[in-house]
Amino acid sequence: MKSKEREEMEKWIEGDESGREMLMRVRSVRPFLLPSPLDRVPLRVGNVLELVGPSPSAKTHILIHAAITSILPKHLGGFDRFVLFLDLDCRFDITRFSQLLIHRLTHHDPTLYNLCMARFLYARCSDTFEFLRTLKTLHCRLEKEKEVQGVSAHLLMIDSIGAFHWMDRASMFLSQRDNNRKKLFLQSVSEAVVQNIKKLLQVHPMLIIATKSVIFGNRYSTASNEVKGNVEERCTRNTQNFQYREYMPSVWQSFVTHRILVRSSDDHPVTCNYQHSSFYLLEWLLPRLSIVDKIVVNEVRT
User: Fold this and answer.
1) What pLDDT is stored for residue 226 in this prediction?
2) Is 82 helix (H, G, I), strand (E, B) or coil?
3) In angstroms, how far is CA 197 from the centroid of its own chain?
């Protein structure tokens, strides 16, 4: 008698399915991990996506949007999983997160709201050493949450990965004058961060999303911003004019598998519907794509 697995395999090989049926089957086995427009490039567990941009440029808002999609139940378009958010900037607004979650729910069901909020795990780190200690204890916390909630982690978010870079760099120079102070070597710190995350991914496969604040410099004259044409063409051309200096050590840079540039847009539709909205441009740098997406961040009102 054939086993159930063998019967299903033969049925799949001999069967004939439509394109719609194929997509439904693939999504049920390996769903897309991020909402649009972050789904232009296939992302899988183990990938490290870096959101690069000035402050502010809606990087944290993008994290919140992806986190809510992950914690929502499947019948509301979510992934029914939990998310771990590491706040290194110490500026996360939980009230705004709650408002956006309620906005995504089809109706304000307190039970469903509490379930979603319980799946959003939050940790705040005030310095590098606390960040490293948190990474070392994540395995136990994720195991505990998995047993309690019955689902595994979907995303590990870090906002922002470069928050302590300049503080550590200043401490390194100060330590050269004071031998009693512990020296901070930026390369060693990044190596420890990367190694701890790699160990965590071996046991808890997740997608990593990290934000990084940068300061842009314009290589060319401002006249290049006056190029006429449609919005997308101007966005593509002007993005090439903005350069930022990479400050994270090479060990982190090589750890990143995907990178998106996020910046504000100067092209705002003049309509009453967008009166309380901000506009941002997203461009894939790794891998390089020629498409520039525009996102609208609306003010959430209670």
Assistant:
1) 36
2) strand
3) 15
Radius of gyration from C-alpha coordinates of the chain: 22
More confident residue, 172 or 2: 172
DSSP of 214-246: --EEESS-GGGGG--S-HHHHHHHHHTTEEE--
User: Which amino acid is it at 73?
Assistant: P
Which carries the bigger pLDDT value, residue 299 or residue 22?
299
Q: For residues 148 and 146, give the distance between their C-alpha atoms in angstroms, rounded to a whole number.
A: 6
Q: What does DSSP say about strands 153-159 and 82-87: parallel, antiparallel, or unpaired?
A: parallel
> What are 19-48's pLDDT values in tens digits?
666 555 544 444 456 777 788 898 888 999
> Which secondary structure element, helix H or strand E, spans residue 18, and what is its range?
none
**Which pTM was predicted?**
0.78
The residue extents of the domains of the chain are 32-298
Q: What is the rounded distance in angstroms from the CA atom of residue 129 to the CA atom of residue 167? A: 12
**3-class secondary-structure state, position 65:** helix
Query: Quick check: 173 pLDDT over 70?
Result: no
Side-chain-side CA neighbours of 235 within 13 Å: the count stands at 24
> Does 287 sit behind a cis peptide bond, omega within 30 degrees of 0 on the bond before it?
yes
| Over residues 153-160, mean pLDDT | 94
Q: How many CB atoms lie within 10 A of CB 202?
A: 9
Q: Which long-range contacts (CB under 8 A, 24 or more apart) does 179-184 make?
A: 184/128
Q: Indicate the angle between helix axes 128-149 and 186-203, nearest 10 degrees.
A: 10
d(Cα 199, Cα 205) in Å, to the nearest integer?
A: 10
Four-way CATH pick for 32-298: 2.160.10.10, 3.40.50.300, 3.20.20.70, 3.40.50.2000: 3.40.50.300
Q: How far apart are CA 102 and CA 229, in angstroms?
A: 39
What's the rounded Cα separation, in Å, for the pair 247 and 52? 12
CB 169 within 8 A of CB 186: yes
